[in-house]
Specification:
- This protein is 0% helix and 58% strand.
- It is mainly beta.
- The strands form 2 sheets. Strands 2, 4, 5, 6, 9, 10 and 11 form a 7-stranded mixed sheet that branches. It has a 4-stranded antiparallel sheet with strand order 1-3-8-7, with no helix packed on it.
- Strand 5 and strand 6 form a beta hairpin.
- The N and C termini lie far apart (40 Å).
Length: 118
Amino acid sequence: QVQLVESGGGLVEAGGSLTLSCAASGSLHRVYAMGWYRQAPGEQRELVASSRSDGDTTYASSVKGRFTSSRDDATNTIYLQMNRLKPDATAVFSCNADSFPPDCLAYWGQGTKVTVSS
């Protein structure tokens, strides 16, 4: 089992910055990739950033150049630094971890809400 706990959400003005954290624990040796997703009101959940165990990181086109994903192996924590936030970033952000094959299990945190005001 893998447990994920997000933190750092809140209210921020448009153009501002916010950093989200996700603390991972449990059977971390099974983790193949970790990333961030967001779900805006009335929208489907979408990928924001994802990093595989080989170090490759991908970003959604809408956040490239403004969001940065990073990790701290010592504390098993990943971060999402969000700069120049736009109102369309208002959403619940969730941390995700995927396990290696053959199980290919997806683990999710409870999410942290980000509200960007105009």
